[in-house]
Amino acid sequence: xxxxxxxxxxxxxxxxxxxxxxxxxxxxxxxxxxxxxxxxxxxxxxxxxxxxxxxxxxxxxxxxxxxxxxxxxxxxxxxxxxxxxxxxxxxxxxxxxxxxxxxxxxxxxxxxxxxxxxxxxxxxxxxxxxxxxxxxxxxxxxxxxxxxxxxxxxxxxxxxxxxxxxxxxxxxxxxxxxxxxxxxxxxxxxxxxxxxxxxxxxxxxxxxxxxxxxxxxxxxxxxxxxxxxxxxxxxxxxxxxxxxxxxxxxxxxxxxxxxxxxxxxxxxxxxxxxxxxxxxxxxxxxxxxxxxxxxxxxxxxxxxxxxxxxxxxxxxxxxxxxxxxxxxxxxxxxxxxxxxxxxxxxxxxxxxxxxxxxxxxxxxxxxxxxxxxxxxxxxxxxxxxxxxxxxxx
Length: 393
Ligand SMILES: Cc1cc2nc3c(=O)[nH]c(=O)nc-3n(C[C@H](O)[C@H](O)[C@H](O)COP(=O)(O)OP(=O)(O)OC[C@H]3O[C@@H](n4cnc5c(N)ncnc54)[C@H](O)[C@@H]3O)c2cc1C
Prior knowledge:
single chain, alpha+beta, seven-stranded mixed β-sheet, three-stranded antiparallel β-sheet, globular, binds flavin-adenine dinucleotide
């Protein structure tokens, strides 16, 4: 949309016919709303969502407040991806992008080929083709063995939900599940229930989110958070986390969103970083078409890359460590005195809302935690990999 608006000739290729469904918690966070608004985009109507509840493995609840920052609002938006993505695509088409329904099968030099044989000659290719990006692989930008993968599974349930709940769960006594589940308010009286698992480089563990999904639903029922049966056709999707294992751009190819792996390592949010990375890529292309890849990488390193430096290794250590340690950590985070004391900085930190937060003790505590984490994991393998990826080497 931004490229077309900026005067570039844009072909928008997607294998799906829009509007289409997409596995998601359907929560567009405050940072995403602020970004969209700064681009002059008003998202479709949805449900405003404020403070979130963190449910600990013992059943204790901590309210994570939603406070307005200097650069973002005090709420997110629950809106189905069916409507949200359709709206975003329509905005790109209205700005002048030419929509093409087709599956990209190869990208070589200046030619993009679809599986039906159609070809396009391009100056630059923006790969916005999701976590398993064919364009990223074709351009040799992804080291699958270094990527921090995740997989999440979600279903809808007919139930009114007031506040979004994130559940830190033990899938066996004293054994922390390496991910989290949720029940989020949706549009009207439909809620979104899901379970996501962090996998590091081993994608074979994705089945855990699927196999444990109904056990997780029973856990929510026991805590009176889920009232009825979930729909019988849940949908799953991959996540590529913390920019590790992917060089976001080289030569003629720039990857954005999940293709670039910009998903938040702490809570899996991907829409805000996808919009931010796409805006950065468009800015680099319009300003410096000949050296867009390097300019784009620099913009990422200064933006989502800084957050990933502090959090990607943390994510890897938490989900790759002993399940018992994870259970102790999540129990402590939601313990009676600790939980309420850390709730406000926790909300800022894990939603990547520290930059642009109002000055004060909460923001200072959250920035200190980020700085400490960045320093503590400076020598880890994950961090070294991330450094190489951000440099494009
Ligand atoms: C279960 C689940 C829950 C989540 N919940 C949230 C949430 O609540 N909030 C949040 O912010 N993030 C959430 N995320 C992450 C979020 O969904 C992603 O980060 C976001 O969709 C990334 O957008 P994208 O445009 O980069 O990729 P996608 O949304 O995956 O879009 C990629 C597009 O590329 C197309 N495509 C793929 N391959 C080809 C090809 N070869 N040729 C042509 N077209 C192709 C696809 O059809 C698709 O339309 C969740 C993810 C999962 C899996």
